[in-house]
Amino acid sequence: MQENTNPILPAAGVRRRTAEDCSTSHATITGGWRDDEGSSNPSGRDPSDNSTASNALLRCKKPFTMATFNASTVREEGRARELAHCFKQCNIDILGIQEHRKVHVEETQFSRLEGQYLVTSSAWRNLSQAAVGGVGLMLSPKARKALRTVTPISERILVAEFDSNPVTTVIVIYSPTNVAPVEEAEAFYEKVGEIIRDVPAHNFLAVLGDFNARLGPEDALYTYHGETNHNGKLLVDLLTEHDLLAANTQFRKKRGKRWTFLDRCTRAKRQLDYILVRKKWRNSVLNAEPYHTFCTVGSDHRVVSMRV
C-alpha cells in the first residue's frame, strides 16, 4: 500500500479510525501536497500538530461552524489567499466550495493556505476550453485533524467524513443551472439522492451547495422567492424523500438577509445556495443565514453559514 503523504488525511504512523473500521464505502484519497511557500512536506503532518487530544469535531457543548460558498474562481493565488483569510476571520471550520475553476491532473488536490487546508476535485473545461466548475473544501486545523476520508464522486460532487460524535458526513455539490437540459439536472439530483441513501442514519449529515434552485413559500418557511422553479422542484423532492430541511430557510430573517446571489448585469437577487441537514437534527442548528463577509473574494454569491 502506498504511504500517505498529504497533510489533511492522517500522516504515516498516526492511527485514526478509517472508513473500513466503520464499515463505510468511502475511499481514502492520498497524494502529495504543498504548503504556502510551495515546498513539500514528506511527513504529511502539520508542523504545528503536536496535540494528542481527541480529534472529534462535533461534540456536545462545543459548537462549530460550517458554510457553503460559490467562489466564482480561486484559480489566482491572490483570490485563494483572500478566501482563506475570510474563512479564518469568520472562524469557520468546514467550508464547501463551488466553482473554484482549478483544473489539475490529480483527482483530488491538497494544499495549505494561510494556515488553513484546501481540498479540491478538478474543475473541467467547456467547449471553448475555459475552466468551469469544480467543488472542494476548506478546513480549519481542527477540522483537518478530524478528517477521515475524502471521496470525489463526480465533477460536481465531493463527499467527506469527519470524526465526531456522531460521525459527520459532508457532501459538497454544485448543481447544473435551471436552464441546463432537464435530463442533466434530474440525473444530478438523482445521484445526490443515491449518495444520501448510503449515509448511515445515525451520522450528522450536511449537504453544502449551490443548488441553482429557487424555493417558493409553499415549499420553504422563510424564502426569498415567490415561486419554485424546476430545480427547486427537484430540490423539494430530495428534501421530502430523505427527510431533510434547508437550514437557511428555517430562521426568521428580514428578506434582505435571505438572498445568496446577485446578478451583476440585472442586479436581481436570488436564493440559490443552501445547507441541508436531516430534520431530526433541526434543534442542533443554532443559526443559518447568508453573510457579506466573503465579498472581498470577488464572487457574485454570498457565503451561507450554519452554526451547529
TrEMBL record:
<protein>
    <recommendedName>
        <fullName>Endonuclease/exonuclease/phosphatase domain-containing protein</fullName>
    </recommendedName>
</protein>
<dbReference type="InterPro" id="IPR005135">
    <property type="entry name" value="Endo/exonuclease/phosphatase"/>
</dbReference>
<feature type="compositionally biased region" description="Polar residues">
    <location>
        <begin position="39"/>
        <end position="54"/>
    </location>
</feature>
<dbReference type="InterPro" id="IPR036691">
    <property type="entry name" value="Endo/exonu/phosph_ase_sf"/>
</dbReference>
<dbReference type="InterPro" id="IPR027124">
    <property type="entry name" value="Swc5/CFDP1/2"/>
</dbReference>
<feature type="region of interest" description="Disordered">
    <location>
        <begin position="1"/>
        <end position="54"/>
    </location>
</feature>
<feature type="domain" description="Endonuclease/exonuclease/phosphatase">
    <location>
        <begin position="67"/>
        <end position="301"/>
    </location>
</feature>
<dbReference type="GO" id="GO:0003824">
    <property type="term" value="F:catalytic activity"/>
</dbReference>
<dbReference type="Pfam" id="PF03372">
    <property type="entry name" value="Exo_endo_phos"/>
</dbReference>
